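Because discrete structure vocabularies remain unfamiliar, we turn briefly to a single example record, giving the amino acid sequence and backbone structure tokens:
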Amino acid sequence: MSKTNRLDWSKQITLMNERIKHFQANPGQEQLDAVIAELKAYADAARNGGIEIPARFTVN
């Protein structure tokens, strides 16, 4: 995995985590729908090869 791909992957994970935190802080249907849509988009990208998920990830 290239550094660029790893950076893209890291940014995607950060965005998903932020959306989940927002939902946890302010639960509601709109926030839940946003979290589910984000997770589905991530899963679809991984399945279709749009994003490479590293087998192991280490934060520096």
Notes: The mean pLDDT is 79. DSSP finds two helices and no strands in the chain. The radius of gyration is 13 Å.
